[in-house]
C-alpha cells in the first residue's frame, strides 16, 4: 500500500498554496488562476522553476528552499494531520508493506514520520526522481524499494495529478478526493473513490 502525503495523510494543500502565494508575492511574482492546480504533484525542482516562471526574482533552487523553510515553520507550529489518518495507516501496515510516495520534499516527509511515529519503512520524494506527478516515477520508485511489482500495489491519492501518476504506474488506485481542490471527474471514474481515509481499512477487507 503506497500513500500520497499531502491531502491524504495531512491537510496541507491549502498550507502549500498560501505559503507559495505569499512567497511569490514577496519576491516579485504574479500568481495566476491555474498556478495552484498546476503545481500539485510537481517535484521540488519543478515547482521551484514554476515559481520563477511567475516572475519570482530568484533561482529555482532559491525559490524552493525559501518555500520549504516557510513550510517547516508552519509544520513546527501545527502539523495538520487528517483525523483518522494515523490509525488508518497503522491498520493497513499491520496487513501490508506500506510506503509513502509524495511530491513533498524529503525533509517534510521526515517531519511527518517523526511526529506521527508511523511504521513506514519506505518514503520516496519525487525530488529524487526524474519527474514529478503525473509522471509515475515516484510510485515506481516506492514499489521498487518495497520489492513489490507495481501491479501488486494499491495507491491512495487525492489530486488529479497524483491519481494520474498512480494509474500510469499500473497500480490499483483508491481516491480520497481533496475537498479543497477536487480531482477531475474524468480521472475519478477510473478509480475507486472513498469518502474518507478512515474508510480505507474496511475497503480492503
UniProtKB/TrEMBL annotation:
CDD domains: HAD_BPGM-like (cd07505). It comes from the Bacteria. InterPro entries: HAD-like_sf, HAD-SF_hydro_IA, HAD_sf, PGP-like_dom2. This is Haloacid dehalogenase superfamily, subfamily IA, variant 3 with third motif having DD or ED/haloacid dehalogenase superfamily, subfamily IA, variant 1 with third motif having Dx(3-4)D or Dx(3-4)E.
